[in-house]
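Entry 14. Ran structure prediction on the chain below.
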Amino acid sequence: MQSAAVVVSTLAMSWFVQPYLIAAGLEVRWFGVAWAILYETVGFAAYYAWRVEKRLDSKITILAIVAALQAGFLGMSLLPLFFGFSMLKIFQIYRGIATPTLRNYINLLTESGVRATVLSVRNFIIWMIFAILVPFLGFLTDAYNLKTALL
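Output, structure tokens:
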């Protein structure tokens, strides 16, 4: 369930990148560049995730991921929009670390006979939570503002 909560938070943040870039005043023609930078960041972080996990133990890695994701939401909601992109980049680093690391933990802790079922149920839970949460966050954005929704 913790894995699902982490993934939902990264999906929700990804869902808010475009509105955030608009609010920051980035011209639409630069959106592709911004997305490329963010996805390159995720890719590099995912590639080196095993090194991070090797240096830290699993509990510290999970705590660091959760703390960084929470700091990302807070930073993007409280900091001026210009600095928020830096927080978004840090958020993407931890997104890249979280995805392979948490999936690996599930693989290590689950017997092979039920592993596919566990991963399928995890994905189902992720998308169910996402389907419930994101419209609410969209409502908060429309009713108040993007920073309130991110908070």
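The radius of gyration is 16 Å. Will compare against last week's run tomorrow.
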